[in-house]
Design brief:
The chain is 28% helix and 26% strand. The longest helix is centred in the middle third of the chain and has 21 residues, at 322-342. The radius of gyration is 28 Å and the shape is globular. It has an eleven-stranded antiparallel β-sheet. Strands 6, 7, 8, 13, 17 and 19 form a six-stranded antiparallel β-sheet that branches. The protein contains 19 helices and 43 strands. By secondary structure, it is α+β, with helices and mostly antiparallel strands. Helix 15 runs antiparallel to helix 16 (648-656) and helix 15 (632-644) packs parallel to helix 19 (702-714).
């Protein structure tokens, strides 16, 4: 097969913070998330997607057909029809059979734009969710580029879902009798989901679909608009004369609006559509009045731009590597923010039916939001701590919008993660007051933030196994490891390492919270676990991963499969527990045995029969998922570990090879398939016949940790309790780089020069021309900016 040039499919527009798509037929839908924090839309480069209010589990507004063909249906579509010929097409390219003569689409920060032409008519459609109403705004501009007048029929269409996705799958034959779509004199369709026994009916919104242009027709019944044995590609109403004026009191709901537009030669016309939610009829009317005010859409779009300008203003870098610069300035923090909003809930790969808010996942997502919005990060930390029990353990995941019972399985790592976020918040702001604020426990009572974190340590200390390591309990970070601890005796050597890093953080937090009496206990526990890690956890060339119920080690050279596990090597270094030579040897083994041209495998060799052919450790095929895939999330910790070892060239190799567009170039666009602008959770490994296939993009812990690894470890700009540490670990051939970093109210304009061509080591720092002792920049209260010059 002839190699495909990815640039024929897409190109980056860095100055505009956009990515432009030149073709609609990508290997998979390449998504964007449009959101104001309450109303959300996942929209693809070709116009497919789903809108939801707060939760995609119980308030899913539109339908999206996961895993089905035709791909990427349905979506918020516009059809442009020539009234004379009857020919119609879509500015999104899909789904109409007739295609535009020219077409492109663009994803930006919170918006997606389509630009297309056919038969002398140009259409530009902009979709975004603004800050002032809970609605998806569609801005459609039509232009007549011919020398004759054009009569057009324009249709806007959405297929309404039945809100509760799982219940719709199971009970739609009954639910459909209880939904309605009615036409209002204010020229709006209003969809009501009034199904009995729904969760939170008092919070379930009405959905409105309207425009600021006069209507010439409408439909609320999908069967009337689409027709029988048809699809969105050939709606009957468009082909047979126009909308039927249908409403719905039971059936399959939709929203279809029709407009008649006359364009003289050279004339343009803009109209806006609003797909939104409101709590009652009065709020619907208020939202319509507000949305139809002159300039509303423009103000909303400017508000969106202003938000992202302010958010991303916390960080800007100039690097020798434009691919890395683009990711760090635009797409990585943008993706990390979307993870922060949605946890692992809904994407092209995840149907949004069961995950809710993952305790472990969201604790890590907070880390990449702290530098941009500490207040928002603190709010999420408090939400998580509210899911912790008085004894210190936490719910595995929970449902703050839905009100469902949480998943209560107890894992050895979940409750420990928030400590890292709390320390980062303290380092970012320098304000320890939040540690003394009261937060409720899930099972009653309340304690300060610090007391919650202390309870997590106490819980782990009470659950040690026969060898002294933390018991695995249900599993640790790798959920597949429940198989090694079914009898309750399995121990996680990795959790001991995670605990080590958490204990180091707790020493600082104890002092900040006014609890110095806890420091000795945490230091003693750290040394106890450190001694075990080096004595029992060491296998000779790498660290073991766990101890199984029967006492055998997991991750040992004595076995034919799953000899070495990435996480045990990286966290031995991150926690500071590994003896120096063992840490270097362990990471050398990673490079020798796990690294590939497309990232580092999670384990080697992959598993097929271990530890028992009748009951192997995983059901994943070789080279997929947890079984020998390149698990990108875990790769981030290898980057950080190599930086801690001072090996900047190795660290940067690991970082650069997983930059999404770089990985796509290496694997090939049609093998990689996922978006080249956001990270994926994993890539199929070399033991798979699809080596390089990116899987589960957008919503992955890779985003937060890649941001931390690149900014705080490679570039070395890291908040610490004393101020802002500058200690880069870069490729030796870099001449330097610049960073503007907002920290405690001041912009630090940092220039790093590497004339000595080293990877690590700061020789000299000046601040506004004055020399600084050490490499930690103090806070500068009352100053708007400082100039920092760093010589390596």
């Amino acid at each position: 097969m002839k190699p495909i040039d990815p640039q024929s499919y897409y190109s980056f527009r860095d100055a505009e913070k956009e990515i432009e798509f030149h073709r609609h037929d990508m290997p998979t839908p390449w998504m964007n998330y449009l959101s104001n924090g309450t109303f959300h839309t996942m929209l693809s480069h070709a116009g497919g997607g789903v809108a939801f209010y707060k939760s995609p589990q119980i308030w899913r507004i539109t339908r999206y057909r996961f895993f089905h063909l035709p791909m990427d249906r349905s979506g918020p579509y516009i059809y442009v029809q020539d009234a004379d010929s009857g020919t119609y097409w879509c500015p999104t390219n899909e789904p109409a059979a007739a295609k535009p003569d020219t077409w492109k689409s663009t994803h930006g920060l919170g918006y997606t734009r389509f630009e297309a032409r056919r038969d002398g008519i140009a259409a530009q459609t902009l979709y975004f969710v603004g800050p002032y109403e809970n609605s998806l705004i569609w801005k459609l501009t039509l232009s007549n580029e011919t020398s004759v007048a054009k009569e057009l029929n324009v249709y806007a269409y959405v297929e309404f879902g039945m809100m509760e996705f799982m219940r719709e799958l199971q009970w739609q034959c009954y639910n459909k009798h209880q939904v309605s779509v009615q036409y209002r004199p204010s020229e709006a369709l209003v969809y009501r989901y009034g199904v009995e026994n729904q969760p939170k009916p008092e919070e379930t919104p009405l959905v409105y679909f309207a425009s600021d242009a006069p209507l010439s027709g409408y439909d609320g019944d999908r069967e009337e608009f689409i027709g029988s044995y048809r699809s969105e590609a050939n709606p009957a109403a468009i082909e047979e004369g126009g909308c039927r004026g249908s409403t719905l009191m039971g059936g399959d709901p939709c929203g279809a609006l029709q407009f008649k537009v006359t364009l003289q030669p050279g004339e343009s016309r803009t109209l806006h559509l609003f797909l939104g939610t409101a709590q009652d009829e009065a709020e619907v009317e208020q939202a319509l009045v507000h949305s139809r005010e002159p300039g509303f859409a423009e103000r909303s779009f400017q508000g969106l731009h202003s938000y992202w300008d302010g958010y991303l203003g916390a960080w800007e870098c100039r690097l020798p590597d434009p691919d890395a610069e683009r990711m760090l300035n635009i797409w990585n923090p943008y993706q990390a923010h979307r993870n922060f909003l949605f946890s692992r809930n809904i994407s092209f790969y995840a149907t949004g039916t069961f995950r809710g808010v993952g305790y472990r996942d969201t604790s890590q997502d907070i880390l990449a939001v702290v530098p941009f919005d500490p207040e928002q990060a603190l709010g999420k930390l408090r939400l998580l701590l509210g899911q912790q029990y008085r004894d210190g353990h936490a719910n595995h995941y929970f449902f703050p919008h839905e009100g469902w019972e949480p998943v209560t399985s107890i894992h050895s790592d979940d409750h420990l993660w928030p400590t890292l976020a709390a320390w980062d918040l303290l380092a970012e702001t320098g304000d320890a007051a939040f540690l003394l604020a009261e937060v409720p426990y899930y099972d009653g009572g309340q304690g300060t933030v610090y007391e919650h974190l202390k309870a997590a340590i106490d819980f782990t200390a009470s659950k040690l196994g026969p060898n002294g390591f933390p018991l695995m309990l249900r599993s640790d970070w790798n959920d597949q490891l429940f198989r090694v601890c079914r009898e309750g005796r399995g121990e996680s050597i990795w959790t001991a390492m995670q605990l080590g890093l958490v204990l180091l953080r707790m020493v600082d937090l104890a002092v900040a919270a006014g609890r110095p009496e806890d420091v000795a206990k945490y230091e003693t526990m750290y040394e106890q676990q450190r001694e075990l890690v080096n004595r029992i956890g060491w296998d000779g060339r790498w660290f073991r991963r766990a101890i199984m119920d029967d006492g055998r080690f997991l991750g040992s050279d004595e076995h034919e499969e799953a000899k070495i596990w990435l996480n045990a090597q990286t966290w031995a270094v991150l926690s500071g527990m590994a003896d120096p030579e063992k840490g270097r040897q362990a990471m050398d083994s990673v490079r020798e045995m796990l690294d590939t041209e497309l990232g580092i495998k999670k384990i080697h060799p992959s598993i097929s029969t271990f530890p028992d052919p009748a009951d192997p450790l995983t059901n994943y095929n070789k080279g997929t998922g947890e079984n020998g895939a390149v698990f990108c999330h875990a790769n981030t910790w290898a980057i950080m570990a190599e930086c801690l070892l001072g090996r900047g060239d190795v660290a940067y190799k690991y970082y650069r090879q997983l930059l999404p567009n770089v990985a796509m170039d290496q694997a090939g666009l049609w093998r990689y398939k996922a978006e080249p602008y956001v990270y994926a959770s994993n890539l199929f490994g070399p033991e798979s016949d699809k080596f390089g296939l990116a899987n589960v993009s957008w919503l992955t812990g890779t985003a937060a940790w890649m941001y931390v690894a690149a900014t705080q470890y490679i570039l070395g700009i890291k908040p610490v309790l004393q101020g802002l540490s500058v200690n880069p670990c870069i490729p030796a051939d870099w001449e330097g780089f610049t960073v503007k970093r907002r920290f405690r109210g001041c912009d630090y304009e940092i220039t790093v020069r590497n004339e000595s061509r080293v990877s690590q080591g700061v020789k000299h720092i000046t601040v506004d021309g004055q020399p600084l002792e050490g490499h930690v920049l103090p806070a500068y209260p009352g100053r708007s900016s400082v100039r920092v010059d760093v010589i390596m």
